[in-house]
Structure formats: structure tokens, C-alpha cells
Batch of 2 targets.
Target 1
Amino acid sequence: MEIFSNLFQRSKGYCLSIYLACFFLLFMSYAQLNAKVLKAGVGNNHKVLEQIDTLKKTPNFIIIFCDNLGYGDIEPFGSKVIRTPELNRMAKEGRKFTHFLVTAGVCTPSRASIMTGCYSQRVGMHVNPRDGLVLRPISPYGLNPEEVTIAEVLKSVGYKTGLIGKWHLGDQPEFLPNNQGFDYFYGIPYSDDMTQEVGQRIGTKFNGSNWPPLPVMENSKVVQAGVDRNLLTKDYTEKALEFIDQNQNTPFFLYLPQAMPGSTTKPFASEAFKGKSKGGPWGDSVEELDWSVGQIMDKLEQLGIDENTIVVFTSDNGAPMTDDPESTVRGTNFPLSGRGYTTAEGAFRVPTIFWWPGTIPAGSVSEEMATTMDFLPTFAHLSGAKVPQDRIIDGKNILPLILGEKDAKTPHDVFYYYYMDQLQAIRSGQWKLFLPLKEFKVHPYFKEGEENQPLLFNVVNDVTSSHNLAAEKPEIVKSLTELAAIAKNDLGNSGQPGLNQRSPGKMDHPVPVLMK
């Protein structure tokens, strides 16, 4: 029995050794099998790994571009009436820009600048004899296809490009987004207030009697005619989420120009938001835009691409406002001075937030001047694309400002405030000078028939632009006036063309955008 007992103990030792050896071999086989599966899964040549590596080098870009949203319409910029929890979150996790400027107080020229990185006067989209200061339906004019758009710049280095929302840079085929660098377009080709009913009211003006039912297009095809504008924010958001889903594994650029709060006296919102805001219909539409921003940030986080995506929230120009600067009936630019559609600070300076988790310093603020023209050169730098070298591009690379680098300063020595083709004001550093004018169509300070003098404001220290320091600072007035002369020579002024202006696109025999 003792022999058998010893043999049993020895056998247990051998069995344990054999068991461990078998386990090791099984583990190695399993690991090798997983390695083969992984290798096959990445496409035999590590395509997925290369793709992931590429994504790290080339971030995605999303620009959310509201319509007529005022500086004081959202909580991160001072609203006490309209609730914007998602934008609060965006600002808490991202970086606010308090001196971020658009190049016009109205739609078309502002959108031309975001596309081309240029003043609208540079690319001929500031005024035309048929439409005036913004494009209307069936216009023969549009953004010249010879211009190089931000979508074309990013597409040249492999980005998927999508535009969901309001275009407003020409409704004829050669001017539409698919011919301007966008792989995908879903939205309205002009402003949502340019309906068939409005056209009938204005009659022959702007060929209004021939305006079609408000069209929603998918690429070159009209898919809706006579749109329910209450559903636009919701519809655009759903399409944006689909675009992100479909392109999550490749670098993408999504331009999301929302229609709201828009140009109508009572903005639109879906049933989930209608009548819910203390800010009335304007507040309803802004609170739905806030929801939309949250949906996009959540989607990026769910897909695990939030840390590789830059999201920018901004507006095409300031709010139209009422006589009460703090009223939300038509938005507010408070505490900035003036209303949209002018060259006031409240028309050109817009609420802007950059969100890039893990890269942008959370909860930070930039007080340096930057502009929508800067998107093109900045995104080109980040993506490895080339900025066009055969033409003047007015935008600058503002990456140091976005990243919050120590002592980073604005790359802009000067900024111009045009109303259509008239230079009305100029900014350099903290100083903004309104030039004395003999004639003007619209002005935030001057009145027809009255003699006017230069107005000089310190727009950094004097937020409301209330204190005219022109008499106290004649040397600054002189310096800015000299800079204005350079601008007039370059970009033109009051009917006199500039040396470096380019032509808009124009075609013969434009036709309405109709459902077929």
C-alpha cells in the first residue's frame, strides 16, 4: 500500500506538470489564433491600424453655424433667460472666444468668408446689382466655382465632406455645395424666410413672383417642397448624426449651418421645445439648438472619436434685436452695442466655443481677436493640407489661440468692418475706429443729414462701445485712418473696385429650384 501511495503522490506531481504544460500550449495557441484574427481584421496589411494612426494625425472638424444668434443669447455668454445646458457643458469642457468676429452683419457675405477664408469683398460676394446684400432665389450670382473652399482644401487630403443646413451661396447647379467640394449636401439652398409666400408678396422685386416652394435638397435633387420649418433643427440634427456614423472611420469635415433662430419675427421649433422657453419663440429655437449640440457631442463620445474631433459653435452674425437691448423677442447682443445687419460690434462679434476634449484646456477663455476666415488656414494646418498659394487668403492660422498656448496673440494686425462695399470701421488691437462718412445706407451711429466725426472705441475695456475717445487719441485715429486707406485700395470702397478683388460666379438664365 505504501508503494501505491508513493506512486500516487509522484503521479500527482507528473499530472500537475503535464497539466501546466498543456495549459501553456493551449494559451499560446489561443494567442496565436487571436493574432491571426486580429491581423485578418485589420485587412492583412494593417489598414485599420494605419487608419487609426491617420485619424490621430488628422482630426475631424465640425462647424455648427447658427443663423442670427446673438452674443447674449446663450448662457456661456451671459443669457439669464434662455437655458443652454449643453453649451454650458461645451464651454466647461472647451474654450470660449470672446472676440471672435464674422466679416459681415448678414448671411451671404458671412458664409462666403467661412468657405473661402477671405473677406466677402475679396471674392465678390458682398453685393450684386440683382440681389443687393444677400442672394435671393433664382439669382444668376453665386460663389465662383474657381474659388477654393475649405471643403475642397480638406477633400484634397482625403477628408469626407458634408454640408447639412443652410447654404445661401447660390442656388444654381454650378454654385451648389456638390460643386464646391462637398461630398454630401442636405438642406435649403438659401435662407428659410425666402418662401414662395414671401415671393408672392414682393412680386416683381427680386423676381419674387417666380420663387418656388421652399425646397430641401439632397445633393442636386429636391426631396421636399414647401417645408415645415418647425422641423428643420431636428431634421438637420438627425442627418448630421447619420453623417458622423457613416464617416466615423475616416477623417471628416461636417459643416452644419442651422436655420435657426433665423430671420423671421417668430423663429421655429419642434413640439418638444415650442412654448417651453422663458425667452419666447426665439428662446424655444435657441434651446432646441442647444439640444442639437448635446446630441452631436454625445454621438462623438459614444463612437469614441470625441478626442479626435474639433467642434466649433458660432453664428453667422449678431441678432436683429428690438429697441430693448436685453429683450429676447428677436435675440440680444447684450452687452455689446448695436444690432445685426450693421457694422456695430454686436453684429460682427459672435458667441463662439471650441471643443476638443483632451487637447483644448477645459473651461478656458481666449480674449484675442480671431475670425471665421481663420478656419480654412487653421484646419489646413491641422490636416496637412495646403492653403492655396495662387491667391490672397485673408485668414490666419489660429491654432496657438485654440490650444491656449502661453502668450499666444492674435495673428491679425487689422480687421475691416464693411457694409456691402463701404468700409465703415476698422479695428487694430483694442481699438475700433468708425470712419467719418458723407453718405451711407445703414450705420449703427451716424444719421443722414448730420455731420459726423470719427468714433474711436476701446472695445476691450469699453464693452458697450459707449465712450468715444477720438479727441483724446488723435494719433490712434490717424494710424487707423491710414490703415483704412490700404483696405480701400485693396478691397474697394463705395463703388470703387479694389486692386485685389475677384469676381463672383454668374450664369445666364437662372431657373427656380423645383421638385421633379
Target 2
Amino acid sequence: MSSSFFRAILLMSASFGATQAMAKPLHDFANVTLSPDGAHLATLEKNESEQPGTRVPNQIVLRNLPDGAPQLVGLPCAACEPTSPTWSQDGKHLAFIMREKGKQERRIEIVDSDGKNLKTLLSFNGSLQDLKYGSDGRLAVLAIEGAHRDPGALQAGAPQTGEIDAQQDEQRIATVAGDHLQWQSPADLYVYEYSWREGGAVGETPRFVGTAAPGNGDDHWWLAKLYGFSGEKADVLYAPPLSQQLGLPVVSPDGKTVAFVGGLMSDFGFFGGDAFQVDLTKPQAKPRNLTPGLKGTVTGLSWCDGKLIGAGLAGARSAFWNLSGNAPVQIAQSDDLISNGSGEPKLVCGKGRSVVVRQNFTKAPELAIGVPGAWTDLTHDNADQPAHAQARSVTWKSDGFTVQGWLLSPLSRKAGVEHDGKIAMITQVHGGPSSAVTPRYLKARSENERLLNAGYDLFLPNPRGSYGQGEAFTQANRRDFGHGDLRDLLRGIDAVERVEPVDDKRLGVTGYSYGGYMTMWTVTQTNRFKAAVAGGGVSNWQSYYGENGIDGWLPPFFGASVYDDPAVYAKSSPINFIKNVKTPTFIYVGANDEECPPPQSLEFYHALRTLNVPTSLVIYPGEGHGMREPKHQDDATARTIAWFDRYLNR
């Protein structure tokens, strides 16, 4: 079956909500999964809806390599949402988790490599995620029996009623045993990630290595340790310092070592830092740093043909290092974002080949195949997708650091947006702060594309605290939120103004999460910006500490709790400088946001209103940390553009 014919099937499918009258929608690729023998590929794919306010579910697509002809797996319902595809060791079967919209039950499904013989292995009342096959054919998963809500701090919080913390959801490793799960980790530990530890005899109790912490899973990840698991027994392998979080544990094929990423991380799932390795054959062995002093950030780890490969960011580029020797050796780099469909570089490999999603700001994503650094396109589904902007990388110096950011400009200027040959620019600060803006394709109808269409340039900086320049750079805003990173932003704008005709009198600033905080902070420190939009921000670190559901992330970044060192929180709290604000500021947040609760936005809004600074606040019902409902996304974007138009285009 040809790729274009497969695309036609998706276009005609009712589940994709497309009609013949519509232009070709963007085709998305996610969760790239390659069988160990490199012969079979599975992905989650969908066509973006052309109907505003409509969410499209993913479908599972199988391909035999190297030809890549796609085979759509037929799911039993239009509202079924598959996740976590994983191949059996022999490549004959693909297992995945499936949930039907509106239902609590999750199911583990299995299908043959040709897309036939779909059957249910297990039905489960609770949460399931992160399926993994062991070499002996057993299937493991992370599970929460009777989960009160979907796990993760980004999800909408459950109502706070009754006795608080009386019952904690604990996520555990389990193996599939017939029609039920058999627990493989203790009941009092929340397991975040895990890897099979192979090398034991067939039939032995399964062994795993993973990251875990007792108690509240959302809150305690920043204190997680590395554990070895055998049955329901757990032993601490490594307890990191306060300023280091752990992610992406990967056990070597021979079961003798485990590698992981360690660094200062602000959010579970946004992993970055140095790569470390622990010898599992030696009791109490200390981790060895595999990338000391690396001028980059490791964001992915993979075992490829007996070699440990690190993927990551080096400045503006995706980079890949062989970490199996005494020092990291770069084996590939690219101006494109090279990943498994996520926002950070990751490498997916199996027996002599790798398959990745390749994209940049102006080139839509495609699957690519080959050895690292020599990938060729496997698909051409988005060949007709246009660029929606011009993009360039900008670098500048700040306090001895080399800082990098992205400048996006419209392909053509609307009449009337230039004032004396100059244009308005909006600085958009990313969340985190341990994260980075990477060159992902600019989608039609995205907020950034709509801002560009409205006539604005966009500046997307990666200030200190970001990934891509090494761990020292990521740690550089520790106990210094809003100070050094704001200097980086302002100097970055100066650098842009040297290469682009930006009107310094028509600057806007916006951001969400940490970017929302930085927006609130910025307008208390400078009047350089004439309009601001703060999404899901923090106005008062002192009150925030007691309001949010994940205060565990604060001591690693502030060095102590607010009760032990209130001054370090006070010096970075926008509310303490609120009387400096002159900038009109629009604010929005999700009603059930546990990371940045609505009272933080209410406090900032109330202060601005009292001080007669133009302001507006919208709290979106049912939303957690980020807008999930397309209608809320569209509304927030429309209000954002209207706010900037009002104050920047006078």
C-alpha cells in the first residue's frame, strides 16, 4: 500500500473528521517504536483536524522495513485512544494500551506485526502506561489500580474535598499474568520510570531498575532515587543530591549497568542533563559521569548495536554521542530536530538502523531511516505542507555565557504593520525553566503561526536555566529566578534589533508556566514592553509554595523551603515589585491547574486592577496546566492577539 493511498484512507476516515473539500491537513507522527530486530516499525499518527475546536485521536500505523509501506491497525471504536506501543523481542507482536474516551477502563491490546488478529490481553480499572516487553516474552507496565485521575502534574487536578492526602495513588511496576496484573514493586513506592534488567534465568522473578519515591507521585519526583526491584522488594542504588533529578533509566543488554540522565530538571518528562552510568554488579557502586563538561544537554539514551548512544541539544542543533568509551564522541548532528516525535532529541534504533522524526520550523515532520547522521525520508506525507515563517538562530553574550534563541518572521508583511519601516516583536519565554525551544514545525492555526500572520516577529530565547549549553548553564538561574535570565532576554532583544528592523517602542512579552512567571516578573522590572500576556504564571513564590500540588520542585531550585529561607523566594516574587508595573497585562489559567494554581493569577490580576493598570483575567473551566480543549486554546490565542493588537499597533 503506498504512502499516498494510506493518506487518502486517513483523510476519508470519519475518526479524522476530514472532508474532501478541505486542503491536505498536516500529518503528525509520535511514539516511534522500532522492533529489536529492526524489521518492524510502529507509530502513532493522525491528520490534524481542519475544523477549529476539534480534537483528533491517534491511530496505530505499522510498517515493515525497509520499504515502509503503512498498515493501519483497525481499532474497535472511533473514540479509542492508543498509547505506549511496544514490540515483542521477536518482532512478531505489538502490544499497546487503549482507552475509550469517557471511560475509566484501560485495556492492553496485542496485534500481529501485519496488523491482524487484534485481541485484548487485559482489562484494568485504573491507570496504565509505559508498556515494555522482557526478553522472555513477559510484558511489564506501570499501573495505578483505581486511580483517582490520570497521573501527572500537568493533568487537571481532582477536587480537593474530604480529608486531604488520606489516600495516595501509588504507581507500581506490574507484569501481565493471564487476565490480571502481578505486582513487581512495593505498594508504598511511586515508580516513575523503569527498565527491564535482563540476564536472569527464564522463569525467575522479573528484575527491574527504575526511579521511585514514596508518597505523592506528582510532588515527590524531584526527590526520587534509583532503585533495583525484584518481586515486591526494592533496594536503593543511588540517592542523588537535592539539585539533581533522574530520568530515562536504561539497563544495558547484558544487565550489568544502568545509564540515566541526571541534572536539574523542573518537570517530569522534560528530561535533560549529563549522562551517568552505574555498575549493577558492584554493591554501592557510585554513578560515573559519562559527559562531564559537555557543552550540550543529553535528552535521550538508547542502546544501539551494543553501544550506548546519547541524544541531545548542543546549542541550536540536535546532537548524538557515542557514550561507550572513556569520553563522549559525537557521531552526528543536525540543524533539524531529530526525535521520536517528542520535543527533544531522541534516537530510536534496532539492529543496524534507526528511525526518527525529522523536522524544523519550516519543514513539516517526516519519518526518516538510516544510520545516525545519514537519514533519508521514509515518508512524504507532508511534502506539500508550506512554510509559515522565516526562521534563524541568534546567539549573543550575557555575563560570560553564550546564549541562543530563535527569531521567527512572517513570510510576507501585512500592509500597515510597519511603522517607519520597523515592526513590532513579541518575546515568548518558554516554560520550565529546564527546557528549550527546539525547531519544531510551525503548524497552521497554532498560536505562533497566528501571531506571525497578525504581523509580529517572534523572539524565542533560551536563557540561562535552559537546555543546550551544558549543565552549568542549566543550573545558572538556581536561587536567582528572574534576575540573570531576564538580563539574558533583554540582551537577546538587543541582539535581534541589530539584525532585524524591530521597533523597540512596540515590544510585547508572553509565556506560559515558567514563561508566565517570567512575563509577570518582567513587567515589574522594566517598562520596555508595551503589552504582556501571562499564561499559568506565578506572582508570589511565598504564597505559591503553600498553594500548588508539587512544592517538591522548589527546594532544588531555591536551595531550601520557603519556611527555611523566605528571603530567596521574596527576591524573585513579582508581587513584591507590583507598584512598578505600567504594562497592560492579559492573564489566563486553567481552573484545575495544580502546577500554577489560579490564585497566583488572581493575585496578580487583583493588584493590577487596584493600581489601575489595564488588565484582564480568564480562568478556563476543567483545564489543568495547559489548555487541552481546542476551544479553550483558540479562545486564549484570539484574546492574546487582540491584546497585542490593542497595545502594540496604536
